[in-house]
UniProtKB/TrEMBL annotation:
GO terms for cellular component: endomembrane system. Its main location: membrane. This is DUF1295 domain-containing protein. The keyword Kinase does not apply. The chain crosses the membrane at residues 12-30, 50-69, 81-101, 129-162. It is a multi-pass membrane protein. InterPro entries: Phopholipid_MeTrfase. It is found in: Endomembrane system.
């Protein structure tokens, strides 16, 4: 009886997370396809700002419930996966933390600010997103929950779409300075990151 309760609660939390992830992904696709109907970045505090960040908070709270209730249900059963997950979590947290420290909170929330090109932004135009991929992958390996893996798949699509939605806005904000930066630094990580 308890397993059925846990499974239905985890499935309910997963459903909430996936529905919210889907709505944010849809908003990002609209932003990419139509600059006149931009959802992300909001640029200022508006309903888009609150929807994005409120939806994000609920999504990740729901995924935390999923991970807690479904922990240990997937295929990564050896300690090696825990170590790999821990390394990815630490590296991801370090990279995202370093870039977040240099970014002001306002800019991290998608509001107008300055163009950053130093620190981790020398290696990636989106080091916070690179770090988040490490964080989420590390958590997924450590928690080893089947439903959490399912819930994290849309998160990776979300992180892949975010910079594509931001780039036209950044081009509008910073013009040629952003274009020169975009040409010299990869979107995520790549060969140009090593130079």
């Amino acid at each position: 009886m308890t397993n059925i309760m846990v499974d239905s609660t985890a499935l309910g939390a997963l459903t909430i997370a996936v529905l919210l992830e889907g709505s944010v992904i849809l908003g990002l696709l609209v932003s990419i396809l139509s600059e006149d109907r931009r959802f992300w970045p909001p640029g200022n505090v508006s309903w888009k700002f609150w929807y994005y960040w409120g939806g994000s908070a609920i999504t990740f709270a729901a995924l935390a419930v999923v991970g807690y209730l479904d922990a240990g249900s997937f295929v990564f059963t050896t300690r090696l996966w825990d170590w790999i997950g821990t390394v990815l979590l630490v590296l991801g947290t370090g990279f995202a933390g370093w870039s977040g420290y240099l970014f002001r909170t306002r800019e991290s929330f998608g509001l107008a600010g300055e163009l950053h090109t130093g620190g981790p932004y020398r290696y990636s135009r989106n080091p916070q997103y690179v770090g988040m991929v490490g964080i989420f992958t590390g958590i997924a390996l450590i928690v080893n929950a089947t439903l959490l893996f399912v819930g994290f798949l849309p998160v990776f699509v979300w992180l892949w779409l975010l910079p594509r939605a931001e780039e036209p806005w950044l081009r509008d904000q910073f013009g040629e300075e952003y274009e020169a930066y975009r040409e010299s630094v990869p979107r995520f990580l790549g060969i140009r990151s090593l130079k």
